[in-house]
Specification:
The chain is α/β, with parallel strands linked by helices. It has 15 helices and 13 strands. The protein starts with a strand and ends in a 5-residue tail after the last helix.
């Protein structure tokens, strides 16, 4: 019987998961990963091995609803039935917001869940469902330890001025502050950078996927990041607006084009690359089109990154390395090229051939700023933090 850690990322209608085996030296290796999608009407389960080879699939009858507790139980049962005597000994969960109470991963109990549930009004697009997944696991497997890993925790090293908005004290005391997200990914990248660029102290990392952000790191610690209070600010994203002036939003509400609920829906689900292009929030789709709206969407995305990169280089006092990661960052040759060309004044010199081949280094050998493509691994980061808490001597 071998031990393993399960990793979960619970969404509104989906559950992403993975399983990591503990070897005799207590290190972790991926066994498999997969998802259950369309849980509210057409649920289907798919799972692949560590190389991406399909292992199994399952579909429920159309019209079936699968809740998170049922989904968790199905996944754990599959693990322990199909992975050759594997026993799940703990679960790690991605939770986007840890609030002021949690600046590092934490063992989950009822008090922790109650506090995390209280934060759902701050971040309504992910937090409620992340917490629901952890609650569901506790109900399905009450004897197994669980760990919460927070996307906001990595950014608690930002200086106070970077975490503070210019608002009255009573508003700030209500929790309005610059939280920052994608921290699990940036945590992983911060640990990888020394392997690629050992002397790089001042680093900008760009986590570019359906959700997108940038982070300025000094000696591996976050000092600034583009995503702010919740998940909508900063860079334009697949369907999220990125930065929009607050006075423009007041104007739209005065025109009665939106109420608070419809305005939030527009900013989160109908804006960003989708809103700009009018057709798609998928960067891969937009790159294959040459119509003016698709071109505008990509150019706005690159322009926003250029502004943040310049600001972050100033905050850091210079720049030693730039890292692209996540779906767009790891796979979009044109986006990487467009941004690197705009960062020439900061010392970036793009190697077009290396960029076309995916790196890992995509800058020239004489570039004052080295540029890298480093795949992120949030699942592994969660599994490592989980292991560190359930077996402190193992790390």
């Amino acid at each position: 019987m071998s031990d393993a850690i399960a990793v979960f990322n619970a969404g509104s209608t989906s559950l992403k998961f993975g399983a990591y085996a503990l070897d005799t030296q207590r290190s972790l290796s991926l066994l498999c990963r997969g998802s259950i999608d369309d849980m509210q009407g057409n649920p289907h389960f798919v799972i692949n091995d560590a190389t991406g080879r399909p292992l199994d699939s399952h579909s429920w009858h159309e019209g079936t609803t699968v809740d998170h507790k049922t989904a968790m139980h199905f996944v754990i049962t599959w693990f322990e039935t199909n992975l050759g005597g594997t026993k799940i000994v703990a679960a790690g969960h991605r939770i986007v917001l840890g609030g002021t109470r949690f600046e590092a991963p934490v063992m989950i109990d009822s008090a922790v869940l109650e506090y995390l549930q209280s934060l759902t009004a701050m971040e309504p697009s992910h937090q409620p469902f992340n917490v629901r997944g952890a609650k569901a696991f506790a109900e399905a497997f009450p004897g197994l330890p669980q760990v919460a890993c927070f996307d906001s925790s990595f950014h608690r090293t930002m200086p106070e001025v970077a975490q503070t908005y210019a608002l009255p004290k009573e508003v700030r005391d209500a929790g309005v502050r610059h939280w920052g997200y994608h921290g699990i990914s940036y945590d992983y990248i911060s640990r990888q950078i020394p392997k690629f660029a050992p002397g790089a102290r001042r680093v900008i990392a760009a986590h570019l996927g359906g959700g997108a952000s940038m982070c300025a790191m000094l000696d591996g610690r976050s000092v600034e990041t583009s995503m702010g209070f919740a998940g909508v600010s900063g860079l334009p994203m697949a369907t999220r607006s990125g930065d929009v002036p607050p006075d423009a939003l007041f104007y739209l509400m005065r025109l009665k084009m939106f109420d608070d609920a419809s305005l939030e829906k527009m900013l989160y689900e109908q804006a960003g690359l989708l809103g700009l292009s009018g057709s798609s929030g998928d960067m891969h789709v937009l790159q294959d089109r040459r119509d003016p709206s698709a071109i505008l969407a990509i150019e706005c995305f690159v322009h926003a990154m250029t502004k943040y990169a310049g600001a972050y280089a100033a905050v850091l006092g210079g720049l030693d390395a730039f890292v692209f990661t996540a779906g767009i960052g790891e796979h979009s040759i044109p986006v990487r090229a467009a941004l690197c060309r705009r960062l020439g004044s900061l010392g970036v010199r793009l190697d077009d051939e290396a960029n076309a081949s995916g790196g890992p280094r995509i800058s020239t050998s004489d570039s004052p700023v080295s540029v890298w493509v480093i795949p992120t691994n949030e699942e592994l980061m969660i599994a490592q933090h989980t292991l560190a808490l359930i077996q402190p001597s193992a790390t």
